[in-house]
Amino acid sequence: MKNYKLIEQKYIEDIHSEVSLYEHEKTKARVVTLENDMDNLAFGIGFKTPPKDSTGVAHILEHSVLGTNEKYTTKEPFFDLIKTSVATFLNAMTFCDKTIYPFSSKNKKDFYNLLDVYMTSVLFPGIYKSKNIFLREGWHYELLNKEDDITINGIVYNEMKGAYSSEDEQIYDGIRLKLLENSTYGIDSGGNPKNIPDLSYEEFLDFHRKYYHPSNSYIYISGNLDMEEALETIDRDFLSKFNYLDVDSEIILPPARTKREEFNYEYAAAKEEKNKDYLAIGYNLGRYDDKIDSFMANFMSELLIDSEAAPVKEALVAKGLGEDVYAITQEGLVLDFNIFSKYTSRDRKDEFVETVESTLRDLVKNGIDKDLLRATLNKVEFGIREGGGANAQIYRFIWAMSNWHYGKTPFEGLDFSKTINFIRDKIDTDYFERYIEEKFLNNENSVVMVATPSATKNEKEAKELKDKLSAYKASLSDEEIEKLIEDTKAFNEFLSKEDSDEDKATLPTLELTDIKPEIEHTEFTVEEYKNSEILKIDQPTNGITFLNFMFDSSFVKEEDLFYYSLLDAFLTKLNTENYSYQELDNIINMNTGGINSKSIVLTHNKTREMMPKFKVTMRVLSDKVEKSFEILEEVLFRTKFENKKRMKDILLELKSDMDSRVIQMGHIVAANVVKSYYAKDSYYQEVIGGFIFYNRLCDFIENFDNEVDTLIAKLKEFASKMFNRRGMVVSVTQEGNHMDNISEVKKFIDHLIDEEVVPSPFEFKENPRNVAYTSSANVNYVAKGYSYNKIGKEYNGNIAVVKNLVGSDFLYTEIRAKGGAYGQGLLVNQDGDMVATSYRDPHITNTLKVYDQIPEYLKNLKLTDKELKDAIIGSINTFDPNLSPQDKGELAMSRYVTDLTEEEVAKNKEECLKTTLEDLKNYAEVVEKVMEKEYICVIGNEEKIMEHKELFGEIMPLQR
Q1: Where are its TM segments located (predicted)?
Q2: For residue 150, is it left (φ>0), alpha (ψ between -120 and 50) or beta?
Q3: What are phi and psi for residue 63, nearest 5 degrees?
Q4: Integer Cα distance of 601 and 694 in angstroms
Q5: Of 608, 644, 650, 948, which is most buried with the most CB atoms under 10 A?
């Protein structure tokens, strides 16, 4: 390969790829190529970027280089590409000691367009010519009037305010930063909002000068691609323009403790309640660049804490030490392993530590159950071999980078069978007991944390910031204040300024002729069998069979929906007739890739009728299907709903999981609440899994002893009626040579009851509750919308272009670029939903005003033919998303059950491709009527919500 030196080359069976490692001769840039038959072409470039403080410089730079650059001169080429590319993945990520820029596309022309933009962005960014990029992405002072207070805004600044609003994030940061203090990992590479304003523009530029050089880069290319052509392009257009640079990217390791340290920590909470403390113990396990140690950290998490049979979790839960127990280990050169008990008492710290370590001592002394070891390994291996699903090519880049930048090779991260086989060979030895003894019990390089809630922490920090900004303003002369006002106005003008035609012309583009007009076809056959239907879907699943069962749950009465919605929480987690729940967990993990269930609701595509379903999924190696059905029948037919303590523990863990998820996905949760005001199926979903369910769950836990007998009776009733072959649909996704497994599916169907399903009525009345959920968070999630179907508009494929332009152009400019929110979008789907959302947003009323301006934006929309074409192309993946074989099977089943045909989807794609400017403008009236309904939901800061309490019909706490 010209201008590259081949270092190593081998075929890796695990990823079905010929893997070649090169070094660029001039710059010593490292390059790995994965030649395979995957049509999803992937690229990534990464840099080793160890930060020295918590100003978030690596994170801010990750955002900033994706702004304007020397070749593509629009303000934000990256976000322009989101609007105009058919990329299947497009992102950038900051880790604790590296920054990566991956993308993938199924279109070769698009792949090379994206490659050029990404490489130009990271190596020739516009940050040196435009300080405004730093101000927008990082932080800046704002002052519009002399009498106003100075404030701070910025996209990363607000993103990290949102991150620090998460209780779980605060707790993990508390122990990690202490355990790894005085090192690269004892700081926050994402940035602490308290420290971000300490970062200067010059320090920001220096970071790029130091680390963003080909000599410090790691380049990845994967797919069915001419690698010689790709490498030649990268050399000719980029690498050849640089000389070798000796980059000092030293990682500072934490000094080893010789004695365990204990400390106290405060986390911000809405209230200071009893038994809301966290107890945690953290261990420094060694170096991540040792592949065995890095694998073992995840293995130990599953073995000791995560599984239902995990002995440390079992011991802590048995003593009532927390409503939830979990472990976290982070990727970095130093391996940390942290065990947490959530919501317990600070007074039980010593008992917590002793319970953890006495359990570990017992495991060392008496030996670990071999079935538990095998089950754990099988579960971990199954997860690795599934390989990231549709985004497998991106995950492989992350795996390759896992220790490549520590001086190892990418082969170690990609050739996982070698590690798995090593671990498997150790199962019948005392390897795991010795590992626990060395890494945990004899490890003084550890810390113990007691974290207590503070209802005033955020308030104190807000006051400190306000006082600091007031003092700063008082230190300014009148001329300096005027200058700050002028700077703020100038910056706002920069944000509002539209790209010129000349700037837009610099962007790479595709033509409509580059887009396949048809959608990807998924072949399947349907066999009717004893009042049920079997969908047989032939896909290259790499020896795995994916089974999906949909049972008709429409018989459940409205007053019983809460009890019904708990059925999936208990299946696989309680004793059965033949196994304890620990034995059951082992046997599931030894023989399958997991058995899961969930109550869901679908909407029929033609009648728009609600379709409640109970969905059961199972993944299994295709040669183990017979055994897996024995286990599935044990779970569905023979679960014993009787262990009340165990049931309460499961519900406490469920509540904890919901508490964590709502902050991580606040925009989605808020949108779902808005939909529940006007849509029957969405209201049903709120009842079985949303806020209505959450509040009922909290009440139930508080009154558990009085209600548990009713729950048990209901669960037994549901289990006796649910698994009914009438109306049941099962999909079997696997390779065609395993279709003999269908006989096992039929045997299972033979064992199901066969009774008529009588639907129960579910009453619904449209009700704009306009709820606000308050928390101690420093940011908000704002949603507003309604059903476009209910105002007379039917679904048309051209609405995908509206979604693209409104979300990625108008809302992006007004809410993210100008408003400082981390994210924004317009949710539109075939069910008639149209909901605008914001994510980690400092505003509420300003954002709602922006939503009301969408109709005006559409009314006045001016697009050249090229801009319209680009917007259409950027919308087309709506109809043809990148899917894994498993995903294709699930989508085929969902479409079949809801009566949505491929022909209809193809027609929608054709409508999208034929979108006109007039079509888009016609949506102005539709959106206007949607926004006039004033259906809103806000999740966020209590003080900000109370400032605008007149907007809401109900205000309630986010968590209980």
Answers
A1: none
A2: beta
A3: -65, -45
A4: 17
A5: 650
Provide the H-helix boundaries in 592-665: 625-638, 644-664
Query: Torsions phi, psi of 243, nearest 5?
Result: -105, 165
- Angle ∠(129,132,138) on CA atoms, nearest 5: 120
Looking at residue 125, the DSSP 8-state letter turns out to be B
CB-based contacts of 206, cutoff 8 Å, min separation 6 = none
Average pLDDT, the chain: 94
CA dist., res. 102 & res. 90, Å (int): 7
Q: Name the packing angle between helices 865-873 and 77-84 (round to 10°).
A: 70
The answer, yes or no, to whether residue 959 has pLDDT greater than 80, is: no
Q: Per residue in 162-214, pLDDT tens?
A: 888 888 889 999 999 999 999 999 999 999 999 999 999 999 999 999 999 99
pLDDT at 228 over 90: yes
Q: At CB < 8 A and 24+ separation, what contacts does 142-150 make?
A: 142/488, 143/473, 143/481, 143/484, 143/485, 143/488, 144/485, 144/488, 144/489, 145/485, 146/481, 146/482, 146/485, 149/466, 149/469, 149/470, 149/473, 150/469, 150/470, 150/472, 150/473, 150/484
Per residue in 108-129, pLDDT (tens digit) is 999 999 999 999 999 999 999 9
Phi, psi of 632 (to 5 degrees): -60, -45
Three-state DSSP at 895 gives helix
Look up residue 197 and give its DSSP letter: G
Q: Do the Cβ atoms of 333 and 253 come closer than 8 Å?
A: yes
Are the C-beta atoms of residues 539 and 389 closer than 8 Å to each other? no
Write out the two tokens for 666. 């606040």
Tell me the average pLDDT across 254-282. Answer: 93
pLDDT at 960 over 90: no
Per-residue H/E/C for 707-721: HHHHHHHHHHHHHHH
C-beta of residue 146 within 8 angstroms of C-beta of residue 239: no
**Measuring CA to CA, which residue among 757, 689, 762, 685 is closest to residue 723?**
757
DSSP secondary structure letters along 657-710: HHHHHHHHTHHHHHHHHHHHHH-HHHHHHHHHHSHHHHHHHHHHHHTHHHHHHH
Q: Which stretches does DSSP call E strand in 332-406?
A: 334-344
Q: What is the pLDDT of residue 109?
A: 96
Say how many C-beta atoms besides its own lie within 10 A of residue 866's C-beta. 15
- 637-646 pLDDT tens trace: 999 999 999 9
> Which tokens is 572 given?
């696989």
CB 260 within 8 A of CB 447: yes
Query: How many whole angstroms separate alpha carbon 315 and alpha carbon 321?
Result: 9
- Residues for the chain: how many in total? 960
Q: What is the pLDDT of residues 694-722, one digit of tens each?
A: 999 999 999 999 999 999 999 999 999 99
Under DSSP, is residue 271 helix (H, G, I), strand (E, B) or coil?
coil
Please tell me whether residue 332 adopts helix, strand or coil conformation.
coil
Q: Rounded distance, CA 923 to CA 860, Å? A: 11
Q: How far from 704 is each of 93, 323, 553, CA to CA, in Å?
A: 43, 14, 25
Q: What is the pLDDT of residue 43?
A: 98
pLDDT band of 293, cuts 50, 70, 90: confident
CB contact set of 882 (below 8 Å; sequence gap of 6+): 40, 88, 89, 104, 106, 390, 391
Q: Which residues contact 715 (CB under 8 A, 6 or more apart)?
A: 563, 566, 567, 570, 641
Q: Which domains does the chain have, with CATH numbers?
A: 4-248+477-499 (3.30.830.10), 261-387+410-453 (3.30.830.10), 771-957 (3.30.830.10)
Minimal CA–CA distance to 129: which of 494, 508, 480? 494
Q: Measure the CA–CA gap between 797 and 69, rounded to whole angstroms.
A: 34
